# Entry
Amino acid sequence: MSKVYFTDLRTTPNRNLLDKVVDLMNRSKIDVKIRKHDLVAVKLHFGEAGNTTYVRPVFLRSIVKRLKEAGGKPFLTDTNTLYTGSRSDTVNHLATAIQNGFDYSCVECPLIIADGLRGMSGARVAIDGEVLREVHIAKEIADADALVVVTHFKAHELSGFGGALKNIGMGCATREGKLVQHSTVAPKVNPENCKGCKLCKGYCPSGAIWVESKKASIDGKKCIGCGECILICPSHAIEIQWNEHPDIFQKKMMEYAAGALQNKTKKSLFINFVVQVSPACDCYPHSDSPIVRDIGILASADPVSIDQASCDMVNNEVSLPGCAIKDISAPGADKWRALYPRIDWSVQLAHAEKLGLGTRKYTLQKI
# Structure
């Protein structure tokens, strides 16, 4: 069984939450994982513009400070989104991050978007997966010496919940990798929005797009799934075909997590903030009411154990009145199924365990 360290949110004048986060890192033997001059990717979600449930920047400052004390050279990082929003390219992504409080004066380390200007900078990593044999991991994360994954734990409409595993599986993928996970077919053109400007055709690296009668079309046989056209279209006419089955989606995501952790299994630490447990992803430009009370913060060297423990702690709570769970869900009831009845969220944990990323069996040690 893996060790998962946990602290509740109770504090004293002599021991605040920032101190507790550092305690969690110390218990997880951060000094063993980080060596002098290690380039440490601190993977987090900077929050979509309008979202308010991302992990507060002040916590990242404490994490960064401790990593520096261990001898590391930390940088905060995330990857560009597949959809068109406030984080779909590096310029807008960094602007959003800074507006949400993640500037150097607060976190005291650089911000680097790991997959380049438009989400195309990646490393191809071979894996022995059930679904995939190769994954496309953001270059700066692949090149980092160590990885610290800081996650706002929440529900998710495609995977039931979003924890540390999703943060690295989806969050460390390039745009091409994100499209591979979400879809089995090429993007499609909405003819009502298409203006026939031919901009997508010029950017397509495989020549899969042509324009006829002032409307673009995509050849699925030629499309390589890079997703460049989705971002570049000024009319938002090119759309993802969200057709992947939830079980396969989760398995692909875990295989991407395996690729992101390759050569970093002993150089990684995972920290889950089980607070403001929202009913949907932080990629939305809003944050709905939490489904349970704020529980605490967890840390572990095992991403499977920390997500299993976080799931268990949420499910052991009673749902809050007035939240997205319509009927009160008692302690022990499945909160994720109450939100998304068709999603078997255990698939991602079982597949991650099968891939050797960790174990679902854990011991919880409260500090």
Residues 264 and 280 are 29 Å apart (CA to CA).
